[in-house]
Amino acid sequence: MLNKSISDRTILFAEVISAAYFLIFFSNVLQYVDTVFVRVIGEFLTIPMIILQLGIIVYMLNVVLIKKLKPSVELTIGSIIAVGIAILITILFLRG
């Protein structure tokens, strides 16, 4: 465990929640929801979730490359999920 204000388990929990959100959002499950409120909330959460992904990737690069520390298993798994989601978003964005 690294000495910091955000624990590695918090990052892993945020990544799991974010991965579930993107799985639901990009699998078009929300197209069957007929409530405008749910769709609006889904759209408003997309940008913060993308920023969360980028923040975790930058944090992991900071820990490994700048501080030269060995990351924990939770941070490594969270970072792998973040990179996977970033790649998925990039591919889907480029496909149009």
Automatic annotation (TrEMBL):
The chain crosses the membrane at residues 12-33, 45-66, 73-94. Keywords: Membrane, Transmembrane, Transmembrane helix. This is Uncharacterized protein.
